[in-house]
Amino acid sequence: MFAELMASLAVWISLNTHYPPLERLPDVQSLPRLELQERYCDGDCPIRAYYIWGGDIHIADDLDPENNVCDRSILLHELVHYFQYTGGRFGEFGSYTRQEFIDGEAFDVQNYYLVSEAVYEGLSGEAMMTRCHLELDQSLSLSATGGRGTRVHP
User: Fold this and answer.
1) Residue from 27, 26, 68, 30 nearest 49 by CA
2) pLDDT tens-digit readout, 79-115
3) What is d(CA 70, CA 76) in angstroms, rounded to the nearest whole number?
4) pTM of whole model > 0.85?
5) Which secondary structure element, helix H or strand E, spans residue 87, and what is its range?
6) Which of 6, 59, 64, 65 has the alpha carbon at shortest distance from 35?
7) Closest alpha carbon to 82 in 152, 1, 13, 151
8) Selection from 126, 5, 120, 24 nearest residue 71 by Cα
9) Angle between helices 69-87 and 3-16 (to 10 degrees)
């Protein structure tokens, strides 16, 4: 699923980060949002996608990364985690600090992607990130508590 899009996103990551190109990419599985919540959140949360360290990427079946730049940035974020995994990135840190660095880098790359894509839609980078925040907030009935999964950082 999404093989061509994943290849394109992988090239973008390699061209815009320190990560080298990869020969193999993870599989992407589309799952109902409720199933994602049950697997990774223990209930209601704003999860949109999840990378299983060393495995596949799971995305909510209501995402449309081929046609929606905000959704595409979520897939890119999870793909960054795959690049981190294959590169052994941040292995020298303790688990809590390591997770902060892992997510921080993925959010930075995701936001840079949104800024780069904003030009094609005639928006500023800030306007694009705001648009994605609004789309996420409108599409979720947020409990706003401790969700996991991808969110766009301001």
Assistant:
1) 30
2) 999 999 888 775 655 565 667 788 888 999 999 999 9
3) 10
4) no
5) helix 69-87
6) 59
7) 13
8) 5
9) 70
